[in-house]
Amino acid sequence: MIVLGSNSDISLAFIEKVLKEGQRFPMMYLFTSNVDKTMKLANHIEAKYDQKCEIIEFDLTKKNNYQTIEHIDSDLLFCASGFLGKNTEEGLYDIENTMKIVEINYSKLIFLINFFAKKMEAKGSGTIIALSSVAGERGRQSNFIYGSAKAGFTAYLAGLRNYLFHKKVHVMTVIPGFMDTEMTADIETPKPLTAQPDQAADIIYKAYKKKRNIVYVTFVWWGIMMIIRNIPEFIFKKLKM
């Protein structure tokens, strides 16, 4: 199993869910830009589940040597890589902030997923599970840089799914709404609309087993975003969203 964004709360919850269900892998490859933190995760997995792990230091904001990961192969890739960055009011004209949001959520990330998608295509098997965001479904003034990167990522996953379907490789897009994770620790979110990582992991795992194409972690977000997507632009631009 290949995990991109290993230190996210959802990655940990999904890894535990998969292992509790009895799946084991020749190796679990944990991609991270924070090796020290991931070391604790790897030790936990190896001790609790007897699952071997290899930590791969890989920072999407830097130039990476893909030859160093040529040996990595698996039929399951889980991607929770993401960076929220500063919101629009704080970060709109901050070039470093904008570059980091775009690189981690889209531009550098799709090179990495493509690298493993090609291997799966060659074998004619595999599953790619990747987290996008409701923020990508319509640009809003509160976080449209992050949202635009996620919109591109959602479109990329849809196209990749369409392409790899004919190669016997499945691509599943996960759309979380509000999540109670470290990434959103500074954001006050409404509890009825906020999911816990364990809840998300259960839903994602069931969807993975059913080979779903798109899954909303909290289904109510499907309805919310359908309404938001259909608000006429001349009204939408006046809203403080």
From TrEMBL:
Keywords assigned: Membrane, Oxidoreductase, Transmembrane, Transmembrane helix
Regions that span the bilayer: 214-231
Domain of life (superkingdom): Bacteria
Pfam families referenced in this protein's UniProt entry, alphabetically: adh_short (PF00106)
Family annotation (InterPro entries): NAD(P)-bd_dom_sf (IPR036291), SDR_fam (IPR002347)
Coiled-coil stretches: none
Similarity remark: Belongs to the short-chain dehydrogenases/reductases (SDR) family.
Name by which UniProt lists this protein: SDR family NAD(P)-dependent oxidoreductase
Organism from which the protein derives: Faecalibacter bovis
